[in-house]
Amino acid sequence: MAGRRAFPIIRGLISPSRSRSRLSPFNLFFDSRSVTYMPRPGEGDLRPVTLIPGDGIGPLVTNAVEQVMEAMHAPVYFERYEVHGDMKEVPREVMESILKNKVCLKGGLMTPMGGGVSSLNVQLRKELDLYASLVNCFNFPGLPTRHENVDIVVIRENTEGEYSGLEHEVLPGVVESLKVITKFSSERIAKYAFEYAYLNNRKKVTAVHKANIMKLSDGLFLESCREVATEYPSIEYKEVIVDNCCMQLVSKPEQFDVMVTPNLYGNLVANTAAGIAGGTGLMPGGNVGFEHAIFEQGASAGNVGNDKIVEEKKANPVALLLSSAMMLRHLQFPSFADRLENAVKRVILEGNCRTKDLGGNCTTQRLVDAVIAYVE
User: Fold this and answer.
1) Can you say how many angstroms the Cα of residue 107 is from the centroid of all Cα atoms in its chain?
2) What is the pTM of this model?
3) Structure confidence by residue, pLDDT tens digits, 178-220
4) Superfamily of the domain at 46-134+280-376
5) Is 137 helix (H, G, I), strand (E, B) or coil?
């Protein structure tokens, strides 16, 4: 880290959503220059990606991605597996496919209420050690929302805490749920958050916690974030208690940049930020570890199991389309990612084709056709 602190952040690492402000003639000149991506030999080969359509709207939106990828001749092909949330575990052949391909695209998997069936989403994250969940919540030009200038990245620890499902019945009528927080996992999620901010020219990282009450568990998480923050002096570091965080999000969300959270808080914060920025059907996301990555809709509250939307074939595929653009960058195909992102944002900006959650009435297929018209 010593070498890193000696150099300023490279402007060329600004993400597309961060590069719109402060345009001077100098910046316009450099922004207008073509950027040459120099691949290594063989990187143009087709890359296999494991595809899990999932439940509810999953098959609709994953099919949308398949159509768009085919239309723009993206250098990927899908190995499709049927997995459903009521299964007791992820089939072995699916895990082997992800282990081999290292990248997976999936629709939502329902988690049944009550005992007997554990969450397959949690199982995938644990078995593959996908310790970092990332959700990008931002305003779309042309889509009015209550708040403007929202561009928040929520980075959530994905493997421990309340979502581990460590529960048991001590005696009839008394259930104990264990929240386990470790120094190892807290440090690595904090490092990932600061590394993300550094590489994407983000200026601030905010740690979300409840250490005033859970002094040992959340206290350990907070201590780890503080230690990592000292290694990145060019990035502002803040802390906010989770209840105050929710209030600040709905009143002044533009104050947040990158947020790093324990497992449960991250789910709540990401869905809240998504609602503020335009809705869960728009926000991309993914889960990543050292070796593997799964890309899926970033925030899924109330969307996966909407039977009426499925029946009418009016699910919003934007979130998964943008998640697949994240996947293309992960696979080192940046120009394809840019084409896809620009096409999606252009369709939303024009406003002629929007699904129900965006105030329109178009079908999934009609929106897909509009995106394909631009990527081609």
Assistant:
1) 13
2) 0.87
3) 999 999 999 999 999 999 999 999 999 999 999 999 999 999 9
4) Isopropylmalate Dehydrogenase (3.40.718.10)
5) strand
